[in-house]
Amino acid sequence: MLKLGIIGTGAISHEFIKAAQLSGGYQLAAVYSRTLTAAERFVKAYEKVALYTDMVEFLSADLDVAYIASPNSLHFSHAKVAILARKHVIVEKPAVSLPAEWAELVKLAAEHQVYVFEAARNYHEEAFATIREFLRDKTVWGASFTYAKYSSKMQALLEGQEPNVFSAKFSGGALMDLGVYTLYAAIGLFGRPEKALYTAQQLPNTVDLNGAGSLIYPDFQVRIQAGKNLNSQLPAEIYTDQGTLTLDGIEFISSAIFQRLDGQEEVLPIEQAAHPMLEESQAFAGVLENGEDRTYADWQQATAAVHDCLFAMRREAGIRFEVDDD
Ligand SMILES: NC(=O)c1ccc[n+]([C@@H]2O[C@H](COP(=O)([O-])OP(=O)(O)OC[C@H]3O[C@@H](n4cnc5c(N)ncnc54)[C@H](OP(=O)(O)O)[C@@H]3O)[C@@H](O)[C@H]2O)c1
User: Which domain of life is it from (predicted)?
Assistant: First the structure.
């Protein structure tokens, strides 16, 4: 059993704990929060969990792995101190604000003999392995991936507040929050693109409310859409020389249907997991327990490619974060 520590007491941390417990591989051991009140409120649902408001003390606790779900721009410093304390790290997406931060975390993790993972939950879905296998004898001619969901923080934004997810200080916006899933889908299926483009509808602080872009591969292009001020029901499509594969989305996929050029349909054997974060928690536990270094190296490269794309796309759209000025 991996002893799990939590940084950040938002709703997603409860979800990760649920998935981690479902996997049977983790035991919740400690929670860090900036305030005791938030920590106490958070652990009401659990038993025998140590609470900390001091990061150094939290990282000195008997923990194997720290799950980090703080606002985006704090991931890097939180992951860094955890690695320096020789804890494995699972850091929520987007793991970092800048590609150089990811490179530093990977280097530090290797030096301190721990693993660092980005919690890119769709990348670890078994559905993508099934789809990759299905595409093996086909020539890909393009794809279209969308993830757009009206944010629960839109009301606050419209009332003049600046929620973390829309702030330049915390590296927010549609591309970082939801576009990252479309990039993981593309890079997981097709590898690193040659070029990444993006234009967006932006707030005065330059952070994007929604946007569209392209990932350019040598022989095809992937259209990307992300949004936080709108809902999209668009399915995902992958176009091939033999027909079109339609997915019900690019995360927590439950259906994949291939329509051949002659109209015949084939349903792929996709089985949705019991929880959207279950497969990633199982995957991380697998590497932590078995040290599958080749798998880990592939993940590191995928994460590096995703963050190179995010950075290039932000630059193209003119999305600037506070961390860019440092
Ligand atoms: N994988 C998924 O499906 C999924 C879903 C949602 C979110 N996420 C990711 O999870 C992360 C957290 O998202 P969220 O919406 O929960 O963020 P959030 O509400 O802005 O912050 C999460 C937690 O971080 C701490 N925090 C907030 N503001 C802080 C500040 N100024 N300084 C230091 N700590 C602060 C708070 O915990 P304390 O008060 O206890 O310190 C808070 O509960 C993001 O990276 C997001 O992308 C992932």
Answer: Bacteria
> For residue 264, is it within any domain?
yes
Cα-flanking dihedrals φ and ψ of residue 263, to 5°? 95, -15
Statement: residue 267 has pLDDT above 90: yes
Q: Pocket of ligand 1, candidates 6, 9, 12: which has the most ligand atoms within 8 Å of its Cβ, to mutate?
A: 12
Range of the domain at 193: 123-279+305-325
Separation in Å, CA 193 to CA 224, 250, 283, 307:
13, 18, 25, 12
The values of phi and psi at residue 33, to 5°, are: -140, 160
Q: How many domains, in total, are found in the chain? A: 2
- Residue 28 domain-assigned? yes
Query: pLDDT of 166-224, one tens digit each?
Result: 999 999 999 999 999 999 999 999 999 999 999 999 999 999 999 999 999 999 999 99
Question: 235 CB under 6 A from ligand 1?
Answer: no
Percentage of the residues of the chain whose pLDDT score is greater than 70: 100
Calculate mean pLDDT across residues 99-103. Answer: 98
Q: Report how far ligand 1's centroid is from the alpha carbon of 8 (Å).
A: 6
Give the DSSP letter string of 113-175: T--EEEE-GGGG-HHHHHHHHHHTTS-EEEEEEEEE---TTHHHHHTT---GGG-TTTT-SHI
> Across the strands, what pairs with 323?
none
Question: How far apart are the C-alpha atoms of 143 and 69, rounded to whole Å?
Answer: 31
Residue among 196, 200, 164, 165 nearest 183 (CA): 196
